[in-house]
Amino acid sequence: MARPLINRVFPTRRALLATAAVAALGSFALAHAAYNVWTGEYTFTKAELQSAVEKRFPATLRYGELVSVQLSHPRLVLDEATNRITTQMDAAVSNTILPSPPVNGTLALNSGVRYDATQRAVLLDNPTVQQVQVQGMSQYNEQLNAIGAVVAQQLLKDYPLYTFKPEELRFNGKDVQPGAITVAADGIRVKLDLR
Fold it and tell me: Which Gene3D superfamilies match (predicted)?
């Protein structure tokens, strides 16, 4: 005998509960692993990326034997238009030979993002100086940009934002490789090649 029409059109309570349970488990797995089965992408939020970069700070770097630069309070800006990440930070510049109070300013470094298979890590790539501002030193812009270029290479070149665990790159018994990396306003997405 055929089921009544109402049972065919409207799911039973048991079916609804089962669907809700599967959805809840699926969302827990997605939140825990940061992997979206529908898009085939790992997603890292801006907060997670900010936390990863903060581990590199505070940092003190030297430029030659004359200048010391103390860097702190990094702030990430994710630029989806250029698919790049800008790291803005506070900078305190000191002369190491002539004792004097540090001169305060800000530094902004702009980086691409790439995947390195050897490290299984998403890295900041080729950081460059975007902007250097130091109070009362605008006449030294060329020297400040040179210092910023050194800072970019020493501080953020190939800096890992995330290192994958081996099991995160294995699906159905096959190893997979991250592919395209997309920077969005709220995080980055790493596409997996599941072929």
Answer: Uncharacterised protein PF07273, DUF1439
What are the CA-CA distances from residue 10 to residues 1, 15, 17, 18, 118 (Å)?
18, 10, 13, 14, 52
Read off the amino acid at residue 167.
E
Q: Looking at the domain assignment, is residue 68 inside a domain?
A: yes
CA 14 to chain centre: 42
Range of the domain at 58: 53-111+127-156
Contact 52, 162 (CB under 8 A): yes
Domain assignment present for 116: no
Name the 3-class secondary structure at 191: strand
Give the separation between CA 56 and CA 179, rounded to whole angstroms. 26
> Is 67 in contact with 160 (CB distance < 8 Å)?
no
In a domain, 84, yes or no: yes
The per-residue pLDDT for range 91-139, each reduced to its tens digit, is 998 888 887 888 899 999 999 999 999 999 999 999 999 998 888 777 7
